[in-house]
Structure prediction request, 145 residues.
Amino acid sequence: MEILELESFLPYRLYRLADAVSREFSRVYKDRHGLTRPEWRTLAGLGQHGTMTAMALGEQSAMHKTKVSRAVAELERRRWLSRTPDVKDRRVEHLALTKAGVAAYREMVPLAKEFERELLARLSPAERVAIAGGVAALEAALGKS
Prediction:
């Protein structure tokens, strides 16, 4: 019987790496604002794209609709997010950051960029080029670019 060694299986390695980076970065927004990963992703998505539906947020952030729903509810409770019903389809809501939400997002952007700089500084210039190229190639191969 053939055995799959998870430690060398690329999908498993990528998952573990993404999870480790995400956990390390989560300390930044958790310490600053007490946000969960889904709440951060929702804040970041709306901060980047402006008004979005919950479905679009889920697709953009690769989150299940229940996680999006909980994150939206929490950000609304904090008064960082507002909901506006769609005029054509009352089942759809348009989500947007409030002034307080935009302020929180603007505070987090430089922290996120600094985290990324520090993470990449752990690699040599050649390794940075290689990882950027490898990730881009995998995204293109999977149609996710």
